[in-house]
Amino acid sequence: MTATSTTMTGRQRFLAAANRQQVDATPVWFMRQAGRCLPEYRAMREKHAFLTMARTPELAVEATLMPVDRFGVDGAVLFADIMLPLDGMGIAYEIRPGIGPVIAHPIRTAEDIDRIRVVDPEEGTPYVLEALRQLQAALGDRAATLGFAGAPFTLACYLVDGRPSREYPKTKALMYGRPDLWDQLMTKLAEITCRYLEGQARAGTGVVQLFDSWLGLVDPVTYAERIAPYTARIFSRLREIVPTIHFSTGTVQLLPEIAATAPAMVSVDWRLPLDRAWDLIGSGMGIQGNLDPTLLMAPWEVIAGGARDVLVRAGGRPGHIFNLGHGLLPETDPDQLTRLVDLVHTTTAR
Amino acid sequence: MTATSTTMTGRQRFLAAANRQQVDATPVWFMRQAGRCLPEYRAMREKHAFLTMARTPELAVEATLMPVDRFGVDGAVLFADIMLPLDGMGIAYEIRPGIGPVIAHPIRTAEDIDRIRVVDPEEGTPYVLEALRQLQAALGDRAATLGFAGAPFTLACYLVDGRPSREYPKTKALMYGRPDLWDQLMTKLAEITCRYLEGQARAGTGVVQLFDSWLGLVDPVTYAERIAPYTARIFSRLREIVPTIHFSTGTVQLLPEIAATAPAMVSVDWRLPLDRAWDLIGSGMGIQGNLDPTLLMAPWEVIAGGARDVLVRAGGRPGHIFNLGHGLLPETDPDQLTRLVDLVHTTTAR
């Protein structure tokens, strides 16, 4: 922090914004901050596979703390992956370098769906809960802990198509063509996700984010009918327990319908200026975003101009968490991120 | 065609719709109809490389005619690729299987931009013009010939990043960070694209489509300032010569700004219902679209329901060309496409 005095800890600032209360400065974190652009993270990855790190609490906590120490962000997002709950579901998968998650036996039939196990995270993914407890202890009040999960639609994309795709044709064909099977699958995934996030809240997580990464592939009519009810169920179950953030990209066409699923906040990408996106979400809901991560490849003055534009459009209204519109790119210069956190804090200090 | 009588040829029907005139039935074609899902196309591809086919007029015409013969579509889009003009620019590239276009020496500096040659297609890509002339002769009035080109922004994405990407960070960093170089690059690409499409019109093409495939990556402010002026220049130059269609996907946030570049029609994907997209484009402009290509993986009754919904939302207003919201998927059953063309024609016959 520069010459401004602050009265809140990072954790307080983050949780206040998530609850749409007054803050001493706008809180900030970066999606994918734990990894990729950090040399200390890449050094860890030379020694450990990605999933090994995610399944080993000590390693996950170490990676989680790196960006908190280096950038001074107000949120510490657990080093993890949206595929981890598959361990509890009894679905074998691997993360292939340069490709992404690949499912050994994709879910296509009623029998496949029946075989998916619905368990509590204490049984299915105990290492995630242990990592969150260790993280809380190591972090103190410096930053809020952030847990997360994949949303049912995005999990279904991976489970049904079986690997990353631009179109997810098998998943969407199931959604369009077999509403009975689709409901069974989405019901199970929503229940698993609820339990997973409830477990994270019990382990002390300050905020949870639901990643519906592939939601940009659908129209509002399909969304409202085939996806939103399951998302809304999750936010409803978590409402009294922990603040929630809905994440997606490329969903300008869905923003009012996403807001209707009633998370605490909606994370938006850079495809609309923040004030226009906030209008679509509704002024009664918090917003997270929305700097374009590719802007971080430009010279500092261009980055600073973009960040100030986001803050001007937020206009100091309560309920804004500064973030990128999507994950950090590996090419990002970490020093620019430290400057950016400082800019957000000093520009908004009150 | 089923029991309805038609009074127009496919070519007449297509051109009338492109000019927002009355039609005897809604014209239809499918993006990527020439290839992928057709066994006769895959047999050709076992004998010839993709670029060999595109650069050999006889082979390009043969592939172009396949879907016209098989599906009865009203538009015959030339078998070609948006990268072909690079031959005239003096930029070496290849199309790598499973990856896509890869540029030998990506364009990053003022010197790189200076070296791009601006030539007429008679010199740079004579085989495209020859293919269009042969196609016209073979096709007669059965269907309208459709030519196309990549839009300057999408070409810049390939040239600057050098290969397909989800984010095109190097291109966007140049656009954000070096507006001077960006203007030089986009000015050259717009001029090359104008000449390329003017040449296609001189060779007798009925309609041309401008593919801005990666436009979904930008917000409306950036679009209006850094991209739209070059697109508008192209449509302005072509206005008196040939009807134009603007294509993009994932651009709900840009539809009014895209319409302001003044093509004859705007092609929209399935992310908004057709009537809502048409409202954003403006009722004074034609529209192409907008069935979700993944819907074609569902049973026929679901496909038919989706197609009828598009037609109901079009409401028989002049200036609608039925198409998918994006390219055909390779898994599509060709017989469903024949049924779909028939459904569109018979449902809308007047």
Characterization of the model:
The structure is a homodimer of 350-residue chains. Chain A is α/β, with parallel strands linked by helices. Chain A has one domain (10-346): TIM Barrel (Alpha-Beta Barrel), CATH 3.20.20. In chain A, 49% of the residues lie in helices and 12% in strands. In chain A, the strands form 2 sheets. A 7-stranded parallel sheet of chain A has the order 1-4-5-6-7-8-9. A two-stranded antiparallel ribbon of chain A has the order 2-3. In chain A, helix 4 packs parallel to helix 8 (126-139), helix 9 (152-161) crosses helix 10 (169-177) and helix 9 packs across helix 11 (179-202). The model of chain A has no long low-confidence stretch (mean pLDDT 96). Chain A binds chain B through residues 167-170, 172-173, 176-177, 216, 218-221, 250, 252-253, 270-273, 292-295, 297-299, 302, 306, 326, 329, 331, and chain B through 167-170, 172-173, 176-177, 216, 218-221, 250, 252-253, 270-273, 292-295, 297-299, 302, 306, 326, 329, 331.
CATH third-tier fold name of chain A: TIM Barrel
| SS field, number of helical segments of chain A | 17
Biggest interface goes to: A-B, 32 and 32 residues
Backbone shape of chain A: globular
Helix-strand layout with pairing:
Two copies of one chain form a homodimer.
Chain A lengths: L9 H9 L20 H9 L2 H6 L1 H15 L3 E3 L8 H4 L3 E4 L3 E4 L6 H6 L5 H4 L1 H14 L4 E7 L1 H10 L7 H9 L1 H24 L4 E5 L8 H7 L1 H11 L5 E4 L7 H5 L5 E3 L6 H8 L4 E6 L8 H15 L5 E5 L9 H15 L2
Parallel strand pairs in A: 1-4, 4-5, 5-6, 6-7, 7-8, 8-9
Antiparallel strand pairs in A: 2-3
Helix pairs in contact in A: 4-8, 9-10, 9-11, 10-11, 11-13, 16-17
